[in-house]
Design a protein that fits this description.
Layout (H helix, E strand, L loop, with lengths): L2 H18 L6 H27 L6 H18 L4 H20 L7 H21 L2 H4 L5 E2 L8 H23 L2 H18 L4 H27 L1 E2 L1 H4 L2 H14 L5 H17 L7 H16 L4 H16 L1
Antiparallel strand pairs: 1-2
Helix pairs in contact: 1-7, 2-7, 2-9, 2-11, 2-12, 3-4, 3-5, 3-9, 4-9, 7-9, 8-9, 11-12, 11-13, 12-13
Length: about 325
């Protein structure tokens, strides 16, 4: 079996496992998996930009929030059908993200991270004070149209969306453009010296990242049926996205999915003992220990186990 067929088989098994999962778990677990799927989408979005190029973004909820608020305002305030408001939300996210954050791509290192963090905080403040009749102010909006009813339908929608976006991102990152983005993360000066436009490459990565984030945010808000600035622009939300990528395996696409499911189920497991924000400290400690043990994440651990298994069976 060649490498391409091997990858197709693994993706097929992964999707098949997702599709049969409702037959194996309870409705409560299914709802937990819905949130894991959406977190995985946000983690994939972050991984496309930061996991590949090395430009660590602390402002990703800014992009998710634009997509979520755009479709919420259009559908709630202007009665735009969701089949139109969601694509418009993705377009608005890409445009607004380029206008606001693209100049930050000329900044490197911690300065880029701080600038993106500032934009997230700015978005959090603006949605509360500018046109609260549209955004709902500090209370947000409720009674939004939902796309599905019941945990089963909600799960199939979330899992299907996550799978499609994951495969598209994975295929995209296996192209020459994906290789160039990876090279930027390794040594941007060498890429620039080879004649490639690093600005265009980073802009492309940012557009793809913004599109995934906007689409995920739009579907997520129509799953919840409500939106609130405190939930979207919370530092714990940002922290969860980044940690999911790091412990799963940055730059791998499938790693962030594994990390997202690990994080969500870990948080749910800790909830009975630590119902408050304390559980974020515990999972942060667990994530730190795992990251110290294997900086390349769970994917590297699984790859190592697979190599050992092949040696034993051969």
């Amino acid at each position: 079996m060649n490498l391409r067929a091997h990858h197709v088989l693994l993706w097929g098994l992964f999707i098949a496992g997702l599709m049969v999962m409702p037959e194996l778990v309870s409705k409560g677990t299914l709802r937990t998996m819905i949130f894991a799927c959406y977190l995985a989408i946000f983690a994939i979005s972050w991984d496309v930009l930061s996991g590949r190029t090395g430009y660590i973004s602390f402002g990703h909820p800014f992009l998710i929030g634009i997509g979520a608020y755009t479709t919420a305002i259009l559908s709630k305030r202007f009665d735009v059908p969701v089949e139109i408001s969601i694509p418009l939300a993705v377009v608005v996210t890409m445009i607004a993200g380029l206008i606001v954050l693209l100049p930050a791509l000329r900044i490197k290192g911690s300065y880029f991270a701080l600038v993106t963090l500032a934009f997230m905080e700015l978005m959090y403040q603006l949605v509360q004070v500018i046109r609260p009749d549209l955004t709902g102010g500090t209370r947000g909006m409720s009674g939004l149209q939902t796309l599905t009813r019941g945990a089963l339908n909600g799960y199939y929608l979330a899992a299907s969306l996550m799978s499609v976006l994951a495969i598209i991102a994975w295929l995209l990152m296996r192209t020459r453009v994906g290789t160039a983005l990876w090279a930027i993360g390794m040594n941007e000066e060498s890429v620039r010296g080879s004649g490639l436009s690093t600005t265009r490459l980073k802009a492309f990565a940012f557009l793809v990242s913004a599109a995934i984030a906007g689409l995920g945010g739009a579907f997520y808000v129509h799953y919840l049926g409500s939106i609130a600035p405190r939930a979207l622009f919370d530092i714990n939300f940002l922290f969860t996205i980044i940690v999911a990528v790091l412990i799963g395996g940055a730059g791998t696409i499938i790693g962030p999915i594994i990390g997202a499911f690990f994080m969500v189920f870990l948080l749910e497991w800790l909830r009975p003992w630590l119902p408050g924000a304390e559980r974020y400290f515990v999972y942060g400690l667990i994530a730190l220990l795992l990251y110290m043990f294997q900086p390349k994440g769970i994917m590297a651990i699984l790859a190592g186990l697979w190599v050992r298994l092949k040696r034993v069976t051969s």
